[in-house]
């Protein structure tokens, strides 16, 4: 009886996802504009992209979204129930459940009570984090070929990314040191050698929901936000807002505001990759929308944490709308020009010019998850080992005491 009831609830949640309508809006737009008319096809644009990019049938996409919604709720309960952060937490698409890595039997019982699946592991989050910090100390100001490092939650270990093309004898020495750290701590450390290095994607290109920081190129709008003293603006990538008080222009070429006002609203270093643009010019208004499939918008209803294994979609002015899965969280990336921590990886394709663009999840009530930071050489037009990187959105919201502009689908 319990299994039948759970299955019925799942199908009910799936139906709710499909039936939820989405109002058409957009992150920031010039006025005046005619009010867009909702089209029935807009409801499915996120599902369509997920089916295309994740290889799912319509029924599989609906069921997965319902499962992910349940997993996200379980994650919140787990975090409140445990005294310390779990060793890892991810969505298992095969089981359709949230999996939580724990080291103690008492925590396993709490995880089950929250509706998730416990997995007993050897190393705690604190132990894994200690190894990550030791690796960061070894990297120092940079090691040739070393492009990133962080916790691998599903493996209960640590991963280091190395670019084959720029690997040197010094890189080999670093890898040997990493193996010694793993042997001493007994924490597994895997070195992943890739054929492409990540890069911050802010080159001059045309298309999508773009904004232009002065004469420095083209980036993408993230999410509309408000703050103290009537502040109005939007989040984007920090490497798009390096210059203080730089004029910011919308996709129609007219000035919409000022990037990095007073030089205090741009972070592009170890703390993260996020920046702020003040929308301070007449004729512009903020909205809770993100351009989705075919330019049709979805409405952001809030923010949430991006869990490993969950599906996610992003919108960028170059590549448009593409979906994938979160493959890693809380990673440190060495872009060559700067080292940034706390980033997440996905396998959704992207391209230069997407920097600052929006990452959202759940089409019935889309949540803001992050802003685009960078990616590898593989793009939506050029195949290869797809790695795209985003900055979780809650960090800049908390740092600058901002609120997302949200709507109701």
Query: Which class of secondary structure composition applies to the elements?
Result: alpha+beta
According to DSSP, the number of beta strands is 26
Beta-strand percent range: 25-35%
| C-alpha geometry | globular
Taking all Cα atoms into account, the compactness measure Rg is: 21 Å
Mean pLDDT: 84
What share of residues is helical? 10-25%
Gap from first CA to last CA: 34 Å
- Specify the number of helices: 7
Major beta-sheet overview: 9 strands, antiparallel
- The residue ranges in which pLDDT falls below 50 over 5 or more consecutive positions are 1-43, 202-208
Key features?
single chain, 409 residues, alpha+beta, 9-stranded antiparallel beta sheet, 6-stranded antiparallel β-barrel, 24% helix, globular, disordered N terminus
Q: What does this entry show, briefly?
A:
The protein has 409 residues and is an alpha+beta fold.
Structure description:
The protein is an alpha+beta fold. Helices cover 24% and strands 33% of the residues. It contains 7 helices and 26 strands. Helix 1 (2-19) crosses helix 3, helix 2 (45-54) packs across helix 3 and helix 5 packs antiparallel against helix 6. The longest helix is centred in the N-terminal third of the chain and has 24 residues, at 58-81. The radius of gyration is 21 Å and the shape is globular. The two termini are 34 Å apart. Mean pLDDT is 84; it is low at 1-43 and 202-208.
